[in-house]
From TrEMBL:
Belongs to the GHMP kinase family. Mevalonate kinase subfamily. One of its GO terms (molecular function) is ATP binding. It is found in: Cytoplasm. Residues 82-169 form the GHMP kinase N-terminal domain. Catalyzes the phosphorylation of (R)-mevalonate (MVA) to (R)-mevalonate 5-phosphate (MVAP). Functions in the mevalonate (MVA) pathway leading to isopentenyl diphosphate (IPP), a key precursor for the biosynthesis of isoprenoid compounds such as archaeal membrane lipids. It catalyses: (R)-mevalonate + ATP = (R)-5-phosphomevalonate + ADP + H(+). InterPro entries: GHMP_kinase_C_dom, GHMP_kinase_C_sf, GHMP_kinase_N_dom, GHMP_knse_ATP-bd_CS, Mev_gal_kin, Mevalonate_kinase_arc, Ribosomal_Su5_D2-typ_SF, Ribsml_uS5_D2-typ_fold_subgr. It comes from Thermococcus cleftensis (strain DSM 27260 / KACC 17922 / CL1). GO terms for cellular component: cytosol. Pathway: Isoprenoid biosynthesis; isopentenyl diphosphate biosynthesis via mevalonate pathway; isopentenyl diphosphate from (R)-mevalonate: step 1/3. Keywords: ATP-binding, Cytoplasm, Isoprene biosynthesis, Kinase, Lipid biosynthesis, Lipid metabolism, Magnesium, Nucleotide-binding, Transferase. ATP binds at P110, V111, G112, A113, G114, L115, G116, S117, S118, A119, A120. The gene is mvk. This is Mevalonate kinase. Its EC number is 2.7.1.36.
Amino acid sequence: MRVLASAPAKIILFGEHSVVYGKPAIAAAIDLRTYVWAEFNDKGAIRIEAKDIRVPGLTVSFSEDEIYFESDYGKAAEVLSYVRQAIELVREEADANGRGITVSITSQIPVGAGLGSSAAVAVATIGAVSRLLGLELSNEEVGKLGHQVELLVQGASSGIDPTVSAIGGFIHYEKGKFERLPFMELPIVVGYTGSSGSTKELVAMVRRTYEEMPEVIEPVLVAMGKIVEKARDVLLSELDEDVRFAQLGRLMNINHGLLDALGVSTKKLSELVYAARTAGALGAKITGAGGGGCMYALAPENQSEVATAITIAGGTPMITRISGEGLRIEEVLP
Ligand SMILES: Nc1ncnc2c1ncn2[C@@H]1O[C@H](COP(=O)(O)OP(=O)(O)O)[C@@H](O)[C@H]1O
Ligand SMILES: C[C@@](O)(CCOP(=O)(O)O)CC(=O)O
Ligand SMILES: [Mg+2]
């Protein structure tokens, strides 16, 4: 039997980092996906073929306490830790420890770019392997297991990324609970710096600053939470669209300033943010963990001018659409 599952990337519209401290955040799935094939093998090992992660041609097998690398890249085990944890967790759920499973991954999502590649690969792997092992999990349950994978690998995770990747659409998220917001097309442009940041490291860096000076950082996190609540009110309001977009844009700019204050922006990210604003975007901010990766801009009138400004500033614009669909089982072959 072979199973193919896929799961989407996301953008965090408001509230990254502060969401790790129990504040709310708003995120949406987007139309870039990770695809995972799962099948049994008779070696009793976990075998992972990561076809297009930027460690080329990497294949690694784990069996008991032995690891077989079929390429000699030292960071391989670390890079594949989300996939390995996802498979181990599902095997445990299904009481199938020791069962040999091979997964093969292809992905459209840039890695370490703030678009939730870690959550998408975890969710798609859990989806494919759980179906292979005959577990009946709802997408919401898959999202919860995806959260556990992120916790195990990163040490800290709010769970917003695996939740939105599993269930799709547009959500308000707080402390493990989500509320679906009405689906809406937002006129956004994503700008990719071309460099990456590790969520694990950035979350740990913010934690160190928080522990060093909680009296300074806590009010920043509280303000970020207020931005999210205000943004939710604006999104759900009956105000004219142009008024709503203008308010959302201002909130994005404030949120960006606070993320910069936490130290997760980079020169390049801020250059793309300012280039987009100068070209007429109503607002622009980092999306995801930062340290490289992506920003996004709200540009109802001038998406193409903003995309050009991002290119001139040295970034890569990506026109993406919000995706209603979360985890999908694409194919089940005998
Ligand atoms: N296609 C993939 N195959 C295997 N692992 C992947 C894949 N895409 C992402 N990952 C895992 O996710 C990690 C990046 O996650 P993270 O630092 O949270 O950034 P982001 O989620 O913003 O892309 C990678 O280092 C790797 O471990
Ligand atoms: C920084 C954070 O808020 C979002 C991280 O998203 P990403 O891995 O950069 O796509 C962490 C989390 O919510 O667990
Ligand atoms: Mg991630």
